[in-house]
Specification:
- It contains ten helices and 22 strands.
- By secondary structure, the chain is of the alpha+beta class.
- The longest helix is centred in the middle third of the chain and has 39 residues.
Amino acid sequence: MNAKQAKYPQLRFKGFTDPWEKRKLGELATFSKGKGYSKGDLVPDGHPIILYGRLYTKYETNIKSVDDTFVVDNADSIKSELGDVIVPGSGETAEDISRASNIEVAGIILGGDLNVVKPSKEMLDSSFLAITISNGSQQKELTRRAQGKSVVHLHNSDLQTVQVRYPSLKEQRKISQTFSSLDNLVAVTQRKLAKLKEFKQGYLQKMFPQNGSKFPQLRFAGFADAWEERKLGEVFNYEQPTKYIVKSTEYDDNFNTPVLTAGKSFLLGYTDEISGIKNATVENPVVIFDDFTTGSHYVDFPFKIKSSAMKLLSLNDNSDNFYFMFNTLKNIKYVPQSHERHWISKFSSFGIYKPSQEEQQKIGSFFKQLDATIALHQRKLEKLQELKKGYLQKMFC
């Protein structure tokens, strides 16, 4: 990148054409430190405080409130002023501490190991500074400057020498407003997603029998019979996955066949291999079950898999509702205690309850629609996060 390119971001708002300036942060701000509070000083109720760990456990570009951490007030405490930008002075990794937050409320106590930056109001918008420190070339510079091994440190002297690139205040504020709006959309979507997942957990508890009972707490109208007890191994057949294992891990999004894992990542990538594909369909789905972690996913499309550490489950009786049985499996409360295979030794012998096929259909359809709504909000969240990532790359020098 030549000098001219470095002064102009790739994407700008209409009407802004001037080059960005570049100066040391020490020329644009004053610096101080928070005062020595730690987790041991926290009390159930008192004066709100920010500890340095919040910046990497609950990161926000703009901190508007503190509602869960308090200390008894101290006359010698350091309190925030509007427009303060805080940067953690310690962390477990350089990435942890190479970030900053703008405090939008005065009077919050600032704990020890917080570097406090007060930017010149004539030169820098505080929110813009927090964004660029946390995401721009400045973050990479701070990451290089962080010192230490098991615990890394960042000092005000490091911050003072960081080279900051910035446009006019008017353009800074336009950028800040854009990312504030994006952050609000992300936060709203995250809350909706969390509520939907909580909603689902509540219904899993109420619509499936608990504690040995043969009757669920909540049922659709017209159903009153006791549920029948079965072994999970009687409900599902299993298939070893050997012939579906992908030969090459050189994945490409332009290829056609997804490669799956039963872990949290689920989709690892796409392969161009045309043999050994498991032809799951909407009419004939399967469950991929991780034999070690006991994680599972419902799959209704053709796929290959990463390793042999799983079982492929299909219904023994096709008149049962697959999605109901999948949720029966997901509803089993079991935490692996050791690194061993679990389907044959444990899960196949677990007792479960199943109702009539008509009631299964009702419950299965309910959870399928709910999961589709959850997936929709998850995709929306991912798109917003990708949009923000793209803007960060294009709107900063």
